[in-house]
Structures are given as C-alpha cells and as structure tokens.
Design a protein that fits this description.
- Helix 1 packs parallel to helix 5.
- The two termini are 38 Å apart.
- The strands form five sheets. Strands 7-3-2-11-18 form a five-stranded parallel β-sheet, sandwiched between helices.
- The protein folds into three domains: 3-194 and 340-393, FAD/NAD(P)-binding domain (3-Layer(bba) Sandwich); 235-335, Alpha-Beta Complex (Flavocytochrome C3, Chain A, domain 1), CATH 3.90.700; 410-517, Methane Monooxygenase Hydroxylase, Chain G, domain 1 (Up-down Bundle), CATH 1.20.58.
- The protein has helices at 19-28, 46-49, 64-74, 81-100, 134-148, 212-219, 250-253, 278-290, 307-310, 312-320, 376-393, 418-424, 431-445, 452-467, 494-506; strands at 3-4, 13-15, 33-37, 54-55, 115-116, 126-127, 152-156, 158-166, 169-177, 180-185, 189-191, 224-225, 230-237, 257-260, 295-298, 330-339, 342-344, 356-358, 363-364, 491-492.
- The longest helix is centred in the first third of the chain and has 20 residues, at 81-100.
- Helix content is 32%, strand content 17%.
- It is built from 15 helices and 20 strands.
- By secondary structure, it is an alpha/beta fold.
- Strand 2 (13-15), helix 1 (19-28) and strand 3 (33-37) form a beta-alpha-beta unit.
- Residues 457-482 form the Fumarate reductase/succinate dehydrogenase flavoprotein-like C-terminal domain.
- Keywords: FAD, Flavoprotein, Oxidoreductase, Pyridine nucleotide biosynthesis.
- Belongs to the FAD-dependent oxidoreductase 2 family. NadB subfamily.
- This is L-aspartate oxidase.
C-alpha cells in the first residue's frame, strides 16, 4: 500500500509547518531533515495568525524573574516551575535570533524594541512586528530561511496519518500525498502540528488544526497531559465568519475597555479589570452574554485615532464588516484560542515514546499550567525548538523494523465532533454535559471512519475534564466552582482514557477524581 522513499530513510521527520516545526528544522541544520506540511507552508499554521506577539523580558525595567512570576501566577498552580524558569530565561535570546533571521520587529526611534502590554503581565514585554501582524512576519522570515536551507527536504501537501511503533520506539511515518500513500522510514520524529481549535464551532484557529498531532501521539502510545485546559480568547470578533477573527489583547493593553450595549463597563470592578487573566475575562464576557447582553470592545478613546496605525490587520476586517473602530464599538465574544495541554515532554521535548519529540502548542512542557500567559506561546515554540533540535541531532539513527503497515486511515473530518465539544467543553462546564459527550464520542473514537481521530482527541479531553472535579485556570466547572488545595496535572495514555470513558458510558459513578493515574 505504500511508496518507500528510500533516499530519505533515516532522516529525522518533522510533522508540521508552523513556527515550531520550521524553527526545529533550522536548528537541526546542517543535518538532513524531512519536513511534512499537509498544506503549503504557512497556509494552515496558527503561528501565521498570531497577532499579540512574543513575550520576552527585554525592557530596561524587566527581568526574566518577573516574567516567571507572571507566568506562574497565570498558570494557577500547575506550571512546572523549573521548566518555566528555563524557558522564559531563554526568551530574550530567541528574539535576537529571530531578528537575525530577518524578522522585522517593531522598534522605537532609538532602535530599541517597541514593547506592548498584555493581560496579566506586570511589565511591557510583548515584542511585535508590523503592529498586529507578528505571526505573519515571523512565518515569512522562517519560511524564507527554510526554503534557503539545503539540508531541509520539504514535502508540502503531505499529511501524516499514523506513526509506526515497535516496542515503544518510532520506526516510521505513514503519510499520504494526494491519493498516494507514503512510508518514511525513520527512528526520529518531531510532532509540531499546532492546536485543537478546529474541534470547536467557535475558534480563532485555522479550521485545519483539530488535534492531528495529539491523535498521532496517542495512537503511538504516548502519555498526554492536561488536555482539559482550553484557553478561550475573550475578544474574538462576533460575526458570521469562521474561524472567528481575533482582536488581540494588545488593544486592551492600549486602553480599550469592554462594555455592553448600554455602555456599561462591566469589568471595571474586577481585579485587573480588562487586563485580568484571560480565563477571568472570558467568563465575564460569557456570563454577560448569557444574561442577554451583547458585548463590545470600546477602543474609541484609547487607542482611538491610533487604532488604524497600530492594528492594520484588525482595522481591515472591521472595515469589511462596516465598523470603524475610532467611532464604533466592536462586537466580541469568547472563542477557543489555545490548548495548554498536549503531549507530555521533558526538558528536551522528548515524549514517553522513544524517538518521538513534540514542540509548540501540541506539546505540554509545563510552561502554561492551567492558563497560558498572553504571548508565551510563540515564545515557547521558538525557544523550545532549539532544545528539540539539539536532542534530535544528538540521538543517532537507530535500526528500523517497520514490519507490516495496516491499511491507510481515512482523512479526518471533525464536523461530527464540533457540536459535542462546543457544548461540553465550553467556557463553563458541568458533569452531565461532559458525560453525555463521552458517551457520544466513544463509539466514534473506537470506529474506523473519518471522525475517529478527532473523536478520540475530543474523548480524551472530555475524560480529563470530567475527572477534574474543581475549577482551575481555563477549566471552570459550574458544578465544582472551587479550586482544590492540591494542584496536580492529569496524565494518561489512550488506553487508560478509553477504560475510564467506558466506565462513564456504562454508569454514572459518584466521583472520577481518582480515576486517572
């Protein structure tokens, strides 16, 4: 059933053409590497859409210790402090590295970085490029660098469908290009496929990002962690377009406020007001809307006339919707934006499967905990790529024994999963709807149809959320609103999650708090 690409045998394979995958490929140079992207580079990468920027303690009044404190506070007790300290300490050098690669970051007249403020940051430390086009500019530079790099073999339009594993070790990748099946023989694979927003009806992510990397790792037997923690951006543009256009947090950092249709500023008395942690702001917007109100971002006074110059991308789609942000409040609503959970990895990005690494949003490094601090995601992808690249390069190509490959799985279709997860794993959650989602997702996940992989990822997320009988960070249960004194991550394999899901589907037990190891 396959085409054996013998000339590429033994090379590391990177799955994903976003910032994490591209940066990992560059760090591996001059070692030959294969990079798979299911679309033309950048076409379906969340990195391309990033507006907020990259967080790094590069200001005169800042320090990585202060950046760490803000990261830990946002993470609500679930950050790995050692991992977070290491990552934020490396952020300033990562900014310099990107600048060397040609990223045109915004600078002041004196040549220093022009820094912005975002929610839950105690200092201005957000480095931007072209105002609200940071992700696009970073991707432009990285794509150009990768295309110039002779050691990188790009396979665009190639989608990974399964990993070949024997004795808990990677042996190859089963992929498809058009209708042509491919097998790449390798003992080293990096998953850098992005997030899970495409599993929900309302998301700011590209619709093609629906957890494929998590499915690959889970079916390979890897441990996944903290899948219940989904970050909802509180200010997605409330209109008919899907995915929902994002209104970056930097606008609130510039002084914009949240109001309802009567002009009431309903966040004014909250600690931090509009710059409270994202989960707090998202719940406030959600509740206001649930009370029958519409919610708007009011930028008429601040940034006011500077809006168009500061946020050209947002200004453009506002104009297309008939809105002038200098005179009109902008309608907003929460939408799925980022996944804090992912493939459990160590300090070098290694998963629990030998020869399998993960980088970027698909990984769980311990940096974000229960709630990502704004603009820490691009930073994490860029910083961790160097360590992943070093680890992959330092791991020699092993002997492969791929054996017989099963029939090629069909292309995934998440459409049946989106309404289930949108209802069960929204801003506010409760046990009955999560249990109902588990019962609906289980037969899909155990089937062999196009919904199988998306349903499997959704099932694992739902099981984790059902098991966490507390509210913490991006996971808020209206039936368990308190935060438990002991913060512990949730970690499990696919087989463990399936076993718990069958129990949930079979009966309504009084508690699943201890169901996961």
């Amino acid at each position: 059933m396959s085409t054996d690409l013998s000339e590429l045998a033994g090379r590391p394979v990177i799955i994903g053409g976003g910032a994490a995958g591209l940066m990992t490929a560059l760090h591996l140079a001059p070692e030959p590497v294969v990079l798979l992207s299911k679309s033309p580079l950048g076409a379906e990468a969340s990195s391309m859409w990033a507006q907020g920027g990259l967080a790094a303690a590069v200001g005169d009044d800042d320090d990585p210790v202060l950046h760490l404190q803000d990261t830990l506070a946002a993470g609500a007790g679930l950050c790995d402090e050692a991992a977070a300290r290491r990552i934020v300490a490396a952020a300033p050098a990562a900014v310099e590295r990107l600048a060397q690669l040609g990223v045109a970051f915004d600078r002041r007249a004196d040549g220093r970085w022009r820094l912005g403020l975002e929610a839950a940051h105690g200092r201005k430390r957000i480095v931007h490029a072209t105002g609200d086009g940071t992700g696009r500019e970073i991707m432009r530079a990285l794509i150009a660098a990768v295309r110039r790099c002779a050691s990188v073999t790009l396979l665009e339009g190639v989608e990974a469908r399964r990993l070949i594993v024997a004795d808990n070790a990677i042996q190859g990748v089963v992929a498809v290009r058009g209708d042509e099946p491919l097998v790449l023989t390798t003992t080293r694979v990096v998953i850098a496929t992005g997030g899970i927003g495409g599993l929900f009806l309302d998301s700011t992510n590209p619709s093609g990002c629906f957890g494929q990397g998590l499915a690959l790792a889970a079916r390979a037997g890897a441990v996944l962690s903290d899948l219940e923690f989904v970050q909802f951006h509180p200010t997605a543009f409330d209109g008919p377009s899907r995915p929902l256009p994002l209104l970056t947090e930097a606008i609130r950092g510039d002084g914009a406020v949240l109001i309802d249709e009567s002009g009431t500023r309903f966040m004014a008395d909250e600690p931090g007001a509009e710059l409270a942690p994202r989960d707090v702001v998202a719940r406030a917007v959600w509740r206001r809307r649930a009370q029958g109100h519409r919610v708007f971002l009011d930028a008429r006074d601040r940034p006011g006339r500077d809006f168009v110059a500061r946020y050209p991308v947002i200004s453009a789609f506002c104009r297309m919707a008939g809105i002038d942000p200098t005179i009109d409040p902008i309608p907003v609503r929460p939408a799925v934006h980022y996944h804090m959970g992912g493939i459990a990895v160590d300090a070098m990005g290694r998963s629990t499967v030998d020869g399998l690494w993960a980088c970027g949003e698909v990984s769980r490094t311990g940096l974000h905990g229960a709630n990502r601090l704004a603009s820490n995601s691009l930073m994490e992808a860029i910083v961790c790529a160097q360590w992943v690249g070093k680890s992959v390069a330092g791991t020699p190509h092993g002997l492969t024994k791929p054996g017989r490959v099963a029939e090629l799985p069909p292309a995934s279709d998440p459409s049946a999963v989106r309404p289930l997860l949108s209802q069960a794993l929204g801003v506010l959650r409760e046990r009955p709807t999560m249990a109902a989602a588990v019962r609906s997702l289980l037969p899909l996940a155990e089937g062999a149809g196009p919904a199988a992989d998306p349903a499997m990822v959704g099932l694992m997320m739902s099981v984790a959320a059902h098991a966490r009988e507390e509210s913490r960070g991006g996971h808020f249960r209206s039936d368990c609103p308190d935060t438990l004194a002991l913060a512990r991550p949730s970690s499990f394999t696919l087989s463990e999650a399936i076993a718990v899901a069958r129990d949930i589907a079979a009966t309504q037990l009084p508690s699943f708090r201890s169901a996961l190891p």
